[in-house]
Fold this protein.
Amino acid sequence: MSDKRVITIGNFDGLHRGHQVLLKTLLDLREKYSCSAAVMSFDPHPVQVLHPDREVHKLFDLDDLEETALRLGADEVIIEKFDQNYAHQTAKEFFCNQLIGRYGAQALVVGYDFAFGAGREGSSKTLQLLGDEFGVEVHVVPPVEDESHVISSSRIRQALRDHKVGEATQLLGRPYYLRGPVVRGEGRGASIGIPTANIQPTVTFSPGYGVYLTKTWVQGTVMPSVTNVGINPTFRDKGSGWPTKVETLILDYDQSIYGEQIQIDFLDFLRPEMKFESVDQLIQQIGIDLETARKKHQ
């Protein structure tokens, strides 16, 4: 691996279609400079360090960033440990010590809203001025829009909260998913003859409560499924504070997969989560959901 790099910098949550324009620019620069193309991000998210009172709900975990960036052509993903010491670097210190000194940056690609350095003192314009001073080519990519608005991670999160799975898929350029290990639930599904797999997602963000058409990956095999995201209100007393649960019912599958890492791809929204007057009504509705899912999966 060359000691010289072209680098794109950002949080890249979801590595959505807007981010992919930065990556395409990066890969073009790789050819120009004949060196490695690197995607640089930070862990923890800078907001968690600078504003610990604020919640950060990421679409995907860092493993997804690495997997997706490499799949789309990057040579490496650099994850910088972000702490108070790192945050106190001035913009020029970050540019000179990290980007040039440590990583041999030949060219940089950032978004229009890029900010860096202590107190976010540096902007994309600052980066261009430093690039001119130290001989590093800097590309600032303008906002990437579809027919409606700027493509952004926050817009994708809002689409998912609003059950707009198709919009999220279109903005991401791939299906939205949740993944994690299958954990023991309360056993209610099995008790009514409808066993589900409960997962512990690797991220805290989840889409709006409801029932979704999904496909589930188990040990490299993908199978049609129906997934509920919510709090199981039929079995809960009124009030808030119940943890969000993600449980999937894989069609025509009866193997035990406790402890397995699975991935649930969200394809479509079927209905909101509802509180039923009786378990029998719930079972009846689940039967309708399964029939709907089978037709849509065909």
In short: DSSP finds ten helices and 13 strands in the chain. The first helix runs from residue 17 to 33.
